[in-house]
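[#protein-structures] MJ: dropping Glutathione S-transferase family protein here for a structure pass
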Amino acid sequence: MNDIILHHYEFSTFSEKVRTALGLKGLAWRSVEIPGLPPRPLLSPELTGGYRRAPIMQIGADIYCDTNIILPTLERLHPVPSLYPNGSEGLARALAFAWERQMWIPSISVLTHYIGEHIPPEFLKDRKESYLGIDISKEAMAPRFDQDVQAVRAQLAWLRQALSGRRFLFGDAPGAADLACWQTIYLLRKNCPPEVDALLGLAPLTGWYDRIVALGHGSPTPMTSEEAFAVARDARPAPVTHLDADGDPGGLRAGCPVRITPDDNARVPVAGTLVAAGDQEIVIHRRDAQAGDLHLHFPRIGFVVEAV
Ligand SMILES: N[C@@H](CCC(=O)N[C@@H](CS)C(=O)NCC(=O)O)C(=O)O
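AK: finished. structure tokens for Glutathione S-transferase family protein:
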């Protein structure tokens, strides 16, 4: 019942970040493979209330949307070994958010330069209409390629600086900051021809890159969407003891109806009632006709919370 269930797909790099976090912690988990684009029956909207991005972590009837809440939750439930070595939690959370925001579209631009002709039209249509809001076909991205290479190189320059003489960003142990920076590079090194290393100046980072690959994925065992859905249906949400049940630092009260929407892409609002909130996490309750009572957890950063 308390199994970690990850709804994910193989080529999702944000999923790879979580899979590698599970590897870092040496955890066993249940793996639900979802399609690379909707529909994703028995997950969205049933368990997520309409939030559509990947990955999703499920523990019983608790659903965690976005890696910026999934990693801190893994840390809360399984603190050793830490994702935040040497007191790095604040910096790691900030760096992960900024890095991924800054790198995502320029990295996709480099990716499409190399492999854009192989991306199926229905995937391009979905990403334009329901996820990124831009056309990521090779032709549409080509005019911005040079600018995007500069942007990625500038980011990587300070990553090289930060890693100079160190095994990982915060010392000898890997952590969440490494995983966030690494996953955007993984997107490119996994899918592009080897010349991407020279284009972006990646050679000095390959030792660090390989040390993160070596963390592995922990111990996944397959599970079907139906089985995961049955787990949610048969479970009750866990009591929230790590957040303020009186409500939200911004003034919302527990029990009040709210709507939570990503502020960057895939802006589908999720409706529910506030259970508890803090500066870094918000938990809402929603009831699905089949799955029953669920708690949905979101990070505060990167989401707009509105009373409705
Ligand atoms: N901020 C989100 C970003 C997640 C994200 O954009 N994931 C990509 C896959 S790597 C995605 O959802 N793509 C569209 C989709 O699969 O529906 C997080 O950290 O979880």
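MJ: nice. The chain has a mean pLDDT of 97.
AK: one more thing. Residues 89-115 form the longest helix (27 residues).
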